[in-house]
Amino acid sequence: MSEHHQADSSATTPDDGEPGFRPRSVAAVPLSEIAEVLGVTVPEQDSGGGVTGISLNSRAVEPGDLYMALPGASRHGADFVPQAVESGAVAVVTDDAGARQLALAGEQPVPVLIVQEPRTAVGRLSALIYRSQPAEGGHPTLFGVTGTNGKTTTTYFINALLRALGKTPGLIGTIEILAGGDPIPSLLTTPESTDVHGLLALMRERGLEAASMEVSSHAISYHRVDGVMFDVAGFTNLTQDHLDLHGDMEEYFRTKAELFTAARARQAVVTVDDGWGRQLARMADIPVTTLSTTPDDVEADWHVASVASQGLGTEFELVHKDYGSLRVHTGLPGDFNVANAALATAMVAASGVDLEVLQAALDQHDPFTVSVPGRMQLISTAPAAVVDFAHNPDALARALKAVRSAEEGSRVIVVFGATGQRDQGKRPTMGAIAARLADVVIITDDDPHDEDAAAIRADVLAGARAAVEKEGLDSEIVESHPRDEAIRLAVELATSKDTILVAGRGHEVWQEVKGVNLALDDRVELRAALTSKGFSVSTDQRIES
């Protein structure tokens, strides 16, 4: 799912403040305590009733809420104070601009607290109001996973391993949110900080013992995890992505590295397969356990050894330099799933689980053969047809390598595009990667957003065609749109020995074009096209990330 920043507080995610994101019971926090945290004076009209919730979205305010009226990209949250108050807001926090706006509108019926940077206070206030991680304990052990690729699968792996250990875990991530009840669809990789703290409090209220959370660079940049303390933070890798936000890889790395500080995490497990991971392990100011998936890298605290294929998946040994080893299996293809499984195991071990207990859970429950929607989701086996979220150069390369069959005469047919209004520099790179690693490259639309779809395709096509010409490749490059037609074309071209990879959108069910959401699920389209041509559709939901 493409990250986006909803700066306008009236237009934050529809999930913001939904009942499913809040605990049932919240003890009222006196406004004086909130004012003390902000370093401001309590307004004279304080009713003394206290605050029982917090919201960035005037439409999601509940009685007793503190409404955070933040500056937005197009409008100021102060515009929506009347709606917030009507819905039950008992106080407002805003900046100088918002306060001037409210003053011009006349006297307000609720106290208004004014701070210079209200956005930076949202996390602290959410933690205070919801008591999401109280000092006296009793809250879930929290695992946070960041990196470019593998975050989703690693959090699902952690969740599955925790269940295998007999715990009741929660999950906060790209696809869904689990807080002990029914799954809640997720619109952002990491929800707003009001929701994060509400969810953590809800998990505590429901008696959940642990939770795993994806932590995107957007979440750190936009203060969505402010006030959250992770018991174990994990790092997967860093490759080109989101440079539209960060500008360059160094800034992207610095943003990720903020998670590995004493203000945000107690300890970390860092994969050191790339230079970024090694740099992070050196500079983090918290205890770091290092992990290498390179068999001969015995300098790392944990390293992967004795890797052997087992069906679609892999059996391997995870060796600690001091404390012994674990036998680990993942039923999912690709070396990156070995890395994901190793990181999940090392993070749970770092939380204090005994290795013998871990081994028993791994042996008895096979937790790393788990379904993650849209992450190398197998749709059919003849041809092999797979849907994956790979939407950046490294992820696309890994996915294409993972699906390549050793069967003679088998081809790889890939369908993909690039997202509009995002990191234009990776488009030709992805085109070139597809030309090198696939036999048939069908370039189509992803989510164009407000950008011209043909121009996006042209950028990707240019990279693919340049690679074919300069490197003497024999891959076939095809442009096809709209996306459903491109998927049907891939199936028409395929034989039962081939592999079709539909990449870029994974679990997403809407395609945004010029502000309009069009219903489009790659899995549905691929199943329909395969069935129409007479191929059998698989019910196997094995995945990778």
Automatic annotation (TrEMBL):
Name of the top EC class for this enzyme: ligase
Entry EC no(s): 6.3.2.-
Domain Mur ligase N-terminal catalytic: 51-127
Record pathway: Cell wall biogenesis; peptidoglycan biosynthesis
Alphabetically ordered keywords of this record: ATP-binding, Cell cycle, Cell division, Cell shape, Cell wall biogenesis/degradation, Cytoplasm, Ligase, Magnesium, Nucleotide-binding, Peptidoglycan synthesis
Cellular localisation: Cytoplasm
Keyword flag Acetylation: no
Residues recorded as bearing N6-carboxylysine in the entry: K256
Cofactor(s) for this UniProt protein: Mg(2+)
Annotated region (Disordered), positions in chain: 1-24
Post-translational modification comment from the UniProt entry: Carboxylation is probably crucial for Mg(2+) binding and, consequently, for the gamma-phosphate positioning of ATP.
A Pfam short name: Mur_ligase
Residue stretches making up the Mur ligase central domain: 145-347
Similarity-based family: Belongs to the MurCDEF family. MurE subfamily.
Protein name: UDP-N-acetylmuramyl-tripeptide synthetase
Name of encoding gene: murE
